[in-house]
Design goal:
Strand order of the largest sheet: 2-1-3-4
Number of strands: 4
Shape: rod-shaped
Number of helices: 6
Helix content: 55-70%
Largest sheet: 4 strands, mixed
Mean pLDDT: 82
Radius of gyration: 27 Å
Low-confidence stretches: 208-213
Length: about 210
């Protein structure tokens, strides 16, 4: 359930982000090409004594280098747009309405299958909904009435006095083991899978920009 909400939010944020950075990249491209043309013309003027063919060759090389640089700028802008989309998703998840956020966190907590442990939240979430989250999760994992297995006594998820540094989500601690379900980790877990879809929404059917380009 929580992953579906996150992927839906990623798609929504990708649509909101689409095109903004590409406009800037195109502007930078035109500026680079214009500058290259000016430099090439200056070279031609300074080399009047040389053959016209030599000046033309220099100009073509200068423009070729500028076009390569412009392509790199455009790829970098696309990569930034993708990163901005996932960053926007993280911020939007962290700023959800309290009820929706509480439902998402409780569902995510229940999905871990843990029936006991310490729940660590960031200071803001701990103060505003920590106890409610623990209570909601414990109720959700409580065995059906009439179950005499004794498991009910083991449903002891408790709110830790410790806090975490994260935009949202939680860390579940049980002894020396910790389960990291912060928003950063949850978004990171679906980033690779969702990147092609984000690219399609942002730029149409184009290859995923490579960070090495």
């Amino acid at each position: 359930m929580s992953i579906d909400k996150i992927t839906d939010r990623i798609k929504s944020d990708a649509n909101a982000e689409a095109g903004k950075t590409l406009i800037k990249a195109d502007q930078e491209k035109h500026a680079v090409l214009e500058k290259a043309g000016i430099q090439a013309e200056a070279i031609r003027q300074e080399a009047k004594e040389k053959a016209e063919q030599d000046a033309l060759l220099i100009k073509e090389r200068k423009i070729s280098v500028a076009e390569l640089e412009a392509r790199k700028l455009r790829l970098a802008a696309k990569q930034k747009a993708i990163e901005a989309c996932f960053a926007r998703t993280l911020e939007n998840l962290a700023s959800m309405e309290q009820k929706d956020y509480l439902d998402l966190m409780a569902a995510t907590l229940v999905k871990t299958g843990a029936a006991e442990g310490e729940l660590l939240l960031n200071p803001r979430d701990r103060d505003r909904l920590g106890e409610m989250l623990v209570e909601k999760a414990n109720l959700a994992i409580k065995p059906a009435e009439g179950d005499d297995s004794g498991a009910a006594d083991q449903n002891t998820l408790v709110l830790s006095a410790d806090t975490i540094s994260a935009r949202g989500g939680f860390v579940l601690r049980k002894g020396s083991m910790e389960l990291n379900s912060t928003l950063e980790v949850m978004v990171g877990d679906v980033t690779e899978e969702m990147t092609p879809e984000v690219v399609r929404i942002l730029f149409g059917k184009q290859p995923v920009p490579s960070a090495s380009c």
